What does this fold into?
Amino acid sequence: MSNEPDFIRSSAVMAAGTLVSRLTGLIRSLLLVAALGTSIFADTFNVANTLPTILYILLAGGALNAVFVPQLVRAMKDDADGGEAFTSRLLTIVTVILAAITALSIIFSPLLVRIYAPKFTNQGIETEFSLTVIFMRYCLPQILMMGIFVMWSQVGNARGKFGPMMWAPVANNLVVIAVLIIFLVIAPDVTAETITSGQIALLGIGTSFGFVIQAALLFPVVAKSGLNIRPRFDWKDSNLNKSFKLGAWTLLFVFINQIGYLVVVNVATAASAAAKIAGITTGVGFTPYSYAYFVFILPHSIITVSVITALLPRISRLAANNEKDKVRGELEKSLTNVAVATVPSAIAFLFFGTAIATLLFSGSTRADSAQIGLVLAGFSLGLVPYSAQLLLLRGFYAFEDTRTPVLINLISTAFSILLCLISGALLPLKWVTVGLAVALGLGALLGTVITLKSLGKNVGAFNYLGLLKSHFRLTFIALISGAPALGIYLLIEQQLGMGLIIVGLNLAIASSVMGGLYLLFGSLFKVNEINSLRIQIVGRLGRK
It folds into this structure.
């Protein structure tokens, strides 16, 4: 197609922005580990930040995006004013709703803590409960800022402006990094019992202020969109009603995900509460899970989300013209392209999870980082299906079908919840969060299978055999590339030990070996997607 270079360029710009954002976000996480550790004390802050954070993930990953981008595209195409009135009404009502949700959440913060971390109400954990409530009240205003950020981003996306959405979070991370550095200087050895109200305010307000900056940076994008956006309260609009009818299903989708995440937080915080009572100091609860999740989601965020964000307006236009075959073709091509990056990433997490965590979270103890590494290895099994399912769901959203994704999500989340409860009931404390990570992946795998079958009824049957062959081939190549790299890593570790510098150098060598072999075997086995990647890398190196 003639706009293929634009699509690739848009994805590349977003991937670059996301990469920088995630790297600065990683630095933020490392500083949090250094400041708060991985025990139940760290859980007080991380649980408090769970509600706004998970909403951000859901909204930025596609909840509002999925509904409103196709609607904005249609309004800009069909409305006489280029979608100006529709966009103004939409932004106004979403802002009002989010402001109300934020206010109610702050008022009912103690109830939210009881819901998300019921074991924090147990005897002996009263301090942690009170601290979580205070942190949550500081963090909850992020909901409004995140929602504004997402909605303003959609205006830019619908106009083909993808980059600012991916780069604005960098400023957010830099603000929080500065706050955490100040916190480490003034409170290097703080605990739940010794932290002061001023130190709590510094963490809470500083974290939320980062999101204010993030949203504010998108205002110029909206201002330059060519639309005269202003508050409008005349909400009686047929197109707006249609958007919210579609949005009702999306809200149900969000609610189902929240239930699933609620179970994860409940099971994980129950493990951390049990660990404190048992005198276990190694973090085995929600904090190791959340830090491992952050590393796990990096390939998805950098590659998949960038592809998805550029893909949705593209397939929405094809769907509007009822070009179903082309929609299916775009999805199949995107699935394979994303797998080129996610498959080797998954194998790397499986083989080197503990080493990666040891290096990244060096501010914690070796026992804590090893626990994070185990959880990361558990997550590795779900990286490919997790990315695949979220990509495929955009096929439904392109046709403005928000009902089917809810039904699919209900089945996959129910399956994940069952596995989470089994993990909490049967596994030893050390392995509970590992079980939670595996549960997410198995739920995503089930969801991907159902999504492929359901979407195929609308756009025509996918080339299942071709997709399976390409994914199995990529997995085989990643395994035979990773195995020698793992052997080299273990040999060096045996000879030189596990000093932090040694681990870093060892990982650099192993990743270079694995990456080089992956490109080499891809060429030998004539995998077109890997060959294209190899040619791009060689070309860039040649220019340098």
Residues 537-544 have pLDDT under 50 and may be disordered. Residues 238-277 form the longest helix (40 residues).
